[in-house]
Write a structure and sequence with these properties.
- Helices cover 51% and strands 13% of the residues.
- With 227 residues, it is of the alpha/beta class.
- The chain folds into 2 domains: 127 residues, 3-Layer(aba) Sandwich (Rossmann fold); 85 residues, Response regulator (Rossmann fold, 3-Layer(aba) Sandwich), CATH 3.40.50.
- α7 packs across α9.
- The N and C termini lie far apart (47 Å).
Length: 227
């Protein structure tokens, strides 16, 4: 059974999510919270597998609450919820430790799948915003960043896979590019996460851009300079 905590300042939104989740045989709603501080308390009390966290809440927003949960080494994995398509806050949410990002208008099946994917150790971004978010993220990386730190633990092939992961390619796409099986790609990704002490694929994306392993495309640098 997957334990879930709902954190959203709108009672109607929480009620709607609860109706969907209660209908799933493998998901159990353990508690609710109306702001970030309540979310931290409920998570500490209930020890859920997944937290559906609204990105904008009073007292303490979802990003700050997620950051606090990560500092406390909570095992709960956070899926950020928002109505803002390709919002700049997504980058901050991922940096804070969120394992995924989903729009509130996602279909019930998408919501259930997101919870199951994250609970099983996977990571996700809403399909509708994945490319936009990464493009925004790429554009935010300074062109004169220092070189990447020591990544000698990774093999040349693992570095190649990490770059492709950071560019939002799926395992299937990476397998096609490298002419290997998806199982081989999964093994490389697992090795990358283990060697770099990363929690999931999202953290790998953040790290790749933070250390400058992947640079912003020229068109995005130009776009940023024109803003």
């Amino acid at each position: 059974m997957i334990g879930v905590v709902l954190a959203d300042d709108q009672a109607l939104v929480r009620s709607g999510f609860r109706v969907i989740l209660d209908a799933a045989e493998d998901i159990d709603v353990l508690g609710e919270a109306a702001n970030g501080r309540e979310a931290i308390q409920v998570v500490q009390e209930q020890d859920p597998d997944v937290v559906l966290m609204d990105i904008r809440m009073p007292e303490l927003d979802g990003i700050a609450a997620t950051r606090e949960l990560m500092r406390a080494e909570s095992r709960a994995r956070v899926v950020m919820l928002t109505t803002f398509d390709a919002d700049e806050l997504v980058v901050d949410a991922l940096r804070a430790g969120a394992s995924g990002y989903l729009l509130k208008d996602a279909q019930p099946a998408e919501l259930l799948q997101a919870i199951r994917v994250v609970a099983s150790g996977g990571a996700l971004l809403a399909p509708a915003v994945t490319r936009q978010v990464l493009e925004r993220f790429v554009a935010s990386v300074p062109a004169d960043d220092p070189p990447p730190p020591d990544l000698e633990e990774l093999t040349a092939r693992e570095l190649e896979v990490l770059k492709l992961v950071a560019q939002a390619h799926t395992n299937a796409e990476i397998a096609g590019r490298l002419t290997v099986t998806e199982a081989t790609v999964k093994a490389h990704v697992s090795a990358i996460l283990r060697k770099l002490s990363l929690r999931d694929r999202v953290q790998a994306v953040v790290l790749a851009y933070d250390v400058g392993l992947v640079r912003p495309a020229a068109k995005f640098r130009r776009r940023r300079s024109e803003e």
